[in-house]
Amino acid sequence: MSTVRGMKERSAGTVKMPRRWGRVIKSALFVSSSFAVAGCAKDAPQDTWQPAGPNAKMIDDLQRPIFFIAGIVGLIVFAAVAWSVYRFRDRGQAMPEQTHGKPVLEVTLTVIPVLILIGVGVPTVGTIFDLAKTNDTEMTINVTGQQWWWEYDYPAVGDNAGVYGISEPIVTAGQLVIPEDTKVLLRVTSRDVIHSYWIPKLNGKKDSVPGRVHLLRMEGSEPGVYAGQCTEFCGLSHAYMRMEAVVLSKADYATWVANQLEAYDSPSADNALAVEGEKLFLQQCARCHQVNGLLNADGSPNVAAPDQYVVSGAAPNLTNLMTRNTFAGASWDLLTPECRDDVWNATPSEFGERYLAGVSEECLNQKDLRQWLRNAPEKKPMYADPTKLAETGGKYRGMPALGLTEDQISALVAYLLELK
Amino acid sequence: MAIIERPSSEVVVTGGPTVGVKPSEALGVFKRPAASTSWRDWVVTVDHKKIGIMYGVAAFFFFILGGLEAVLIRMQLMAPSGKVLNADQYNQMFTMHGTTMVFLFVMPMAAAFANYFVPLQIGARDVAFPRLNAFGFWSFLFGGIFLNTSWFLGGAADGGWFMYAPNSSTLFSPSHGIDFWAMGLQITGIASLTGAINLIVTVLNMRAPGMKMMRMPIFTWMVLVVQFLLLFAIPVITVALFLLSFQRSFDATFFDVASGADPLLWQHLFWIFGHPEVYILILPSFGIVSEILPVFSKKPLFGYPIVAMSGAAIGFVGWGVWAHHMFASGLGPVSVTVFSMATMAIAVPTGVKIVNWVMTMWGGKLLFTVPMLFSIALVVQFTIGGLSGVTHAVAPSDTQQTDTYYIVAHFHYVLFGGAIFGLFAGFYYWWPKIFRKQLSESIGRWNFWLMLVGMNMTFGPMHMLGLQGQPRRMSVWTSARAGEGFFNLGFWNRIASIGSLVLSLGVLLFIVNVVYTHKSKKVAIAPLDPWDGRTLEWMTASPPKEHNFDAIPTVGHLDEFFHRKYAQDATTHEITQVATAEEVLAELNSHPDEHIHMPSRSYWPILLALALPIIGYGLIYNRVILAVGVAMVVATMFGWAMEPSTAADDDFDPSAPGDGGGHTKELAPLG
Amino acid sequence: MITTGSKFLYGLGAATAVAAILWFIANDGGSLGVVSLAFLAVALFFMGAIASFVRDGHVLSTDTDAHASSNAAQRGAGRSWFPLGTALSAGMVAVGLVGPPGIFRVGVCLLFAMLGQWLIKNWSDRASSDATYNEKVRAWVVHPLEIPVGGALLLAVIVLSFSRIMLSLSKESGLIVFSVMAALILTFGSMVSIRRGASRRVIGAVAGLVMVALSGTGIALALDGERQELVEAAAEDHFAHRACGEEAEETDEDAARSVSAKSSVAATVILRDGRLFAEMDGWNGELTAITLQRSTTSTILFVNEDDHEHRMVVAYGKRVEDLGGGVSKDVVLEACTSLVTKGGTQAVSIVIPKPSFASEEPYSITVPGVEGASIEVQVP
Q1: CA–CA dist B192, A53 (Å, integer)
Q2: What residue ranges in B542-614 does DSSP mark as E strands?
Q3: Phi, psi at residue C208, to the nearest 5°?
Q4: C262-265 long-range Cβ contacts below 8 angstroms, 24+ apart
Q5: Which residues of B touch A114 (CB under 8 A)?
Q6: 3-class DSSP state of A139
Q7: Contact B17 C297 (CB under 8 A)
Q8: Distance of alpha carbon B353 from alpha carbon B309, whole angstroms
């Protein structure tokens, strides 16, 4: 049944023939069409082929021709295979010439890829160094990754203070706010494990490694909000560690800075729920979460001490929480879906105004925020097991479940709404 | 050869010293086991063929295990905010999937083929160190089982298959999973290292007369390069795993940032191992395909010396590209440039192979059997994977692509479409030689097509997912980040998940094929040389006798077997068959070798291998168990060293004169 | 199968196993003792197993003829140093029970080594009446253990002795001794390898002499005890707070440590011409105010381009320590380098737990002894 002769007879039949090269053509078509189709996905928020800033554009300008060349090379190989499969199939011909090789052909077909690669390599080197340039920085922001959220601090040093009006350091989380057309440099580090900072539409990614400071350029050409995600596996909630970059026009940016630096106002007495919320906040939350200007009962400024309660030493600063529109590592929106769409789908000229409007009571996503306050670990997997706190010296690795009643949650929400 | 010259057993009557019994008789517990045909023979065997089969069966079992892990991952990612696995389980699942597939499937399966066929291809009777060979297999098996017991003992490792520090420390991963991972890989690493030494010595020292290095079959060449890579890469991962184990078990501070350590140390150590590792994974399959394409094109491999040398070049240059896994890790533009250029350079020898494979087919007489289908598919799939690799050799491009599904697509194309398709090609090609029956061609075609379609359906869309920004290792993806339009992340995720089911069906058909072939009465015994092979392994019985060749052939050409069957007319260049395979074999066996001495069986390799996981459990749980394990290692090493060099029923006397010793053994009759 | 000879070993093994269990119960755990006894029991059972299968002594005790003609009987008792060695080790054990525990441990190890060797020598002596053959069989059995263990011990002695010598030398003299010894070894080795046929005796003698000198000096210095400053420092908890002043201290006298290879530091602080300034990636020019991130490990590299030795001090607030009973102590959070020579570099890694606004004094980097050398550190 399986002699050589038998094989020959079977394959001489015409039934098998189309399948042979049909398969090869099929793979070729699939792959090449897939690259075309890649452009078909509209507005994936983290699409790497839709640059919105000069750094991402440099990368895109480099990679488009390279993908194209790779595609051509691929098609040539598929065509060669397809042709061999069709032309040289066993049709009963004699044993072929036992060629052992043709050195000239081999050398040629080696030199050509080398030349192509040199052609690819030269612009690559240029782009690598262009992307690494830092001496024309206009603004510097510190980015710190922690399990499982991102903190930003805008230091009041150098040009930050002089040009952008940041006279006191600003500490926020989740959404990085930068001015349009500004060469911003991020100094990225981590408090615990390795994370990676990535806003695809603005630039490639850079790992945040504890003990090291890495530099990443971020520059947006148009106002808008650009999504990103932690892209180095960092433990349990790696999938829930997200962030956004918000680009505002220069004027809007000055407004934003001024608002962040405004003094704190306790909720007015006629908002009883919020006043109660403030007291509750001081009892339950202020140990870890800093709100600048919040005073203790004895009138001293409250200084949060997350270094005593959290393994990695910090918790998000909640000053002006409602000027951001995501929370919990940017994994959930503070805005309801309609309000969110308003902001995310705004045109560049409307965007600044909508973003600076912040989160109002009508637009607040009560459901997610209340779930979070009710039982955060159930919503986002954090410290793996509360009974295992002994392994971390009794410290938390994320926000614990506080055991609050529904009324307490309502009070807190009312208070948080005042943080604008 | 005896370790010590023992005085002869005859008592010298001249009044000189009287001697007691020969130690091999006195030390009864150390007698070597006798031959048998039951399961016991498999436990004490040192025969490279049996060991190869055991490697293959064990590796295939782990393939199924790793595949189940993969299907669970795809089921979790089929829909947004999936509920199939929680975050902790997902993290364990993808870590174990990667670890199992790399260390417990592809490497040992390649070892299976290498073990079975390298001695046959070079005309040797066994490997240089048979007991070490057996020890290697049992270490791998016990190491793999040990690693997987972590599932039941508090959770498997959950730090990703490359286990970056400091996430791998006890502070961030308190369960024992990573300890099991580290110990398990140390044990399987021992298997790889001993196998490497064994095969290198075998290939360099035990080739048949006339078989110069450039007359060796190409599969053996690729295996040789791989063994050299293993020899230098395994020590690096061993060191890294020691540092990790010491940090986790004994509070060392190698990767403790507060004490001044740099987490990038782990990354460098791991990837200096990790990059040669991927060439270790692919080169054996390249070798298999380089054997199969000539046979089914009826032409020799085009540019054999260049294919062999490019394999060596890949092995060599592969040491200089490790930091392309670290382009986003903060290395600085100079380092990034160097590694980016080196990575582009390594595309050249790989491209050379593709050219040579296509040119082998070109002008040939192509027969599309199932092994040929898998081989051609490898050429196409690997090209796709290789080209996506070139796109991320470009470092700025890589900063967008790394840690996304685009990379997952790349390595699955080269590993599944490349390494695994090559292994399947090898299954179909060599099955008749190993198991006396050819796997069914019709089921085989279904197997092939389902695997091909399934593979492309699963991993093709991942290119899109990556370019659209879906990162790796995420336990859930959300509709908010999925984008609008029909072809958004959701669509491609769904296709990939369905594709994984199609792929599983394809693999299942392989199992069906095996069962059918061996259970069915209708499938006939395969002839000696079903494919009109070109290399020496076909010049044996099916399956080969225990001593492989009755007479070691003298080799005059590359593709020696082909040249014994066919002659080329000097003037007309016409090729005619001058002998059938059976005739060639009969002619070879007509002058059998005298003095065939085969290595004897031994039970010490499995016992020594058994001690290793005991040490592992001891280090994790209890020092007493550790003490027992260490004692067992010492005892079994003693036993191994002290056992006699031959079995009791073998009358081979190493001290008698003659080539390799005296002999009185009659050869078993042929047939 | 259970021969006379093996019965003893099995019995002893069983007794040891029972002892291990009793120890475990009596000491409620006591892992070292249990492990040692368990190990011993396993070893004894193993030896019993060997004895069983060697089938030595497999002779009926009433068979006097067999006794008389067996190999064991032929062998006359020769001189042996094992009794002396065993007695000495037992003596060490006894002394160690009342004296230094180190002697006890060494004595126990030596005792077991002696007994084991004696056992095996006896066994091999009775294997045949040919002494050469006996020696070969003994070697065959025992070398797989003796040689690695012996080699490891020799290596340990060399390493430990050398380290004790190096530890007791000062910075400069250490350098000289190290170089001289290395040169001597190189010269000796080259002479030996070039002049083939050098007498083995001579080489052996020289090597032996070196070993004796090395281990002798090493042991003597080891017995000398810990370095005085370390003892004092431990007693007064100096490890907790290194004095970060201008003057040189004991810890500054040690080996140079003025090279720091660290990539990706948070800031580089340079002392040049009496000015102290910082350079940070991403900020242009010379900075006198820098920003560091909170609660993360920041590494600051100090570069001294001044003619004199200086150290850099980073002050980052204070921590209140509760001493109990309502008393609390302010612990200053400070980190400093040791004195760095001109052209040298050294890094400190710190974790700053609290933001700047939480502290009355601003955080700063200073160089004691240099007026006006101060860099403000802002931690948001």
Answers
A1: 48
A2: 566-568, 575-577
A3: -60, -45
A4: C262/B262, C262/C299, C262/C301, C262/C347, C263/A212, C263/B262, C263/B332, C264/A209, C264/A211, C264/A212, C264/A213, C264/A214, C264/B330, C264/C299, C265/A213, C265/C299, C265/C300, C265/C301, C265/C347
A5: 348
A6: strand
A7: no
A8: 10
Q: What is the mean pLDDT of residues B459-487?
A: 89
Interface TM-score (ipTM) > 0.85: yes
Q: Is the bond leading into A148 cis (omega within 30 degrees of zero)? A: yes
Dist. CA B263–CA A212, nearest whole Å: 9
Q: C314 to chain A, minimum CA–CA distance in Å?
A: 17
Residue in chain C lying closest to A308 (CA)? C353
Tens of each residue's pLDDT in chain C, 380 residues: 566 677 888 899 999 999 888 888 888 776 788 888 888 998 888 888 877 766 655 555 566 676 666 665 665 556 778 888 889 899 888 888 888 888 888 888 889 888 888 888 888 887 777 778 888 888 888 887 888 888 998 999 889 998 888 888 877 888 898 899 899 889 888 888 887 776 778 888 888 888 888 888 888 888 777 777 777 777 766 555 567 877 777 666 654 555 666 788 899 999 998 899 999 987 888 899 999 999 999 999 999 998 888 889 999 988 877 777 778 888 888 888 888 888 888 888 899 999 998 888 899 999 998 888 899 999 98
Closest in B20, B23, B637 to C71, CB measured: B20
**Nearest alpha carbon to residue B192 among B145, B240, B137:** B137
Q: Is B88 helix (H, G, I), strand (E, B) or coil?
A: helix
Give the CA count within 13 Å in the CB-facing half-sphere of C137.
Answer: 26
Quickly tell me which residue has 């507005």 as its tokens. A43
- Residue whose entry in the numeric block shows the structure tokens 């810990």: C226
Question: Is residue A172 less than 8 Å (CB to CB) from chain C?
Answer: no
* Residue burial C138-147, b: 16+ Cβ < 10 Å; e: rest: bebbbebebe
Neighbours of B479 (CB within 10 A): 12
- The count of residues in chain B is 671
Q: How far is A166 from chain B (nearest CA, A)?
A: 28
Full set of structural domains in chain B with CATH: 52-257 (1.20.210.10)
Instruction: Please give the Cα distance from B128 to A67 (Å, whole number).
Output: 48
Q: CA B305 → CA A111, B200, B221, B347, distances in Å?
A: 17, 19, 10, 18
pLDDT tens column, C66-104: 666 666 566 555 677 888 888 989 988 888 888 888 888
> Judging by DSSP bridges, how do beta strands A149-154 and A195-197 pair with one another?
unpaired
CA A22 – CA B290 distance, rounded (Å): 23
Please tell me which residue of chain B has the smallest CA distance to C43.
B631
Q: Residue B130: is the preceding peptide bond cis (ω within 30°)?
A: no
Query: CA-to-CA distance for A310 and A192, rounded, in angstroms?
Result: 11
Calculate the alpha carbon distances from C118 to C110, C125, C133 in Å.
12, 10, 18
Question: Of B605, B638, B645, nearest to B195 (Cα)?
Answer: B605
The answer on pLDDT for A123 being more than 80 is yes
CA distance readout (Å), B6 to B1, B2, B276: 11, 8, 46
Q: Answer for the pair B200, B128: CB distance below 8 angstroms, yes or no.
A: no
pLDDT tens digit string along B67-81? 999 999 999 999 998
B348 pLDDT higher than 70? yes
A154, A170, A303 member nearest C358 (Cβ): A303
Within 10 angstroms of residue A109's Cβ, the number of other Cβ atoms is: 18
Average of per-residue pLDDT values in chain A: 87
Distance from CA of A63 to the nearest CA of B (A): 6
Classify the phi-psi angles of A157: left when phi > 0, otherwise alpha if psi is within -120 to 50, otherwise beta: beta
**Contact check, Cβ <8 Å, A42/B566:** no
Q: Cβ distance A179 to A139 under 8 Å? A: yes
